[in-house]
Design goal:
8 helices, binds magnesium ion, binds adenosine-5'-triphosphate, Rossmann fold, globular, alpha/beta
């Protein structure tokens, strides 16, 4: 392939990594806004197979979180639910994901999209300098997270979290609008977050 053809086929892809337990309107607004403002061809909801930092509670089965992410992006142009971190399964360093992406999908030009809470830890990430060399990084503000990391991308501020949504389900409060209809249905069908087996 010539370098001109390579350039033409390059795809600018935003990576919004997370647990998505469950995906919610906060994730989607960030993804939509990043795609439009940064001129990205796609934004992937990059579902973590085995999240490192969520050891204090039982994380929902990866396949169920992926199914919810797929339901969340239905009808949203350019948004993709990605299982790229499911192979191999297990915990993943961001730098390893980026290196694998560059190797397997050389046409992808990645931009990491981070909420301010996630961005606060970047300096301590495994091989953080390599992460910065492999991808552009965009930081968005997040209400109430107390992070002082400056945002590089303005997004509508929504004080919504998966933690808050799980608590709402547990106490029988509605999550419509906070989660897309397909996600609400899956949570109910799978019996997630209700304190029963699926929680
Ligand atoms: P939990 O409460 O379980 O930690 P969460 O709502 O923080 O869930 P994650 O899957 O942990 O969701 O977040 C994935 C990414 O999305 C992170 O970079 C996070 O900062 C960002 N993010 C999540 N919710 C928002 C929001 N309301 N506004 C801006 N960024 C957000
Ligand atoms: Mg979080």
């Amino acid at each position: 392939m010539t370098s001109t053809m390579m350039r033409m086929s390059q795809r600018r892809v935003g990576l919004l990594g997370g647990t998505f337990d469950p995906p919610h309107i906060g994730h989607l607004v960030v993804a939509v806004e990043a795609r439009a403002t940064l001129n990205l061809d796609e934004v992937w909801l990059l579902v973590a197979h085995t999240p490192w930092q969520k050891t204090g509670r039982g994380v929902t089965d990866a396949e169920h979180r992926l199914a919810m992410a797929r339901a969340a992006v239905v009808g949203l142009d350019g948004l993709v639910a990605s299982d790229f971190e499911f192979d191999p399964p297990g915990p993943t360093y961001t730098v390893d994901t980026l290196e694998r992406l560059v190797r397997l999908r050389p046409e992808v030009m990645p931009t990491l999209i981070l909420g301010a809470d996630a961005a606060a830890g970047v300096g301590t990430w495994h091989r953080s300098a390599d992460v910065a060399a492999l991808a552009e990084i965009a930081v968005v503000d997040r209400p109430g997270c107390g992070s002082t990391t400056p945002a590089t991308l303005a997004v509508p501020q929504l004080d919504v979290s998966s933690t808050g949504i799980r608590a709402r389900v547990q106490t029988g409060r509605p999550i419509d609008v906070l989660c897309p209809p397909g996600v609400v249905s899956l949570i109910s069908e799978l019996g997630l977050y209700d304190g029963g087996d699926g929680s």
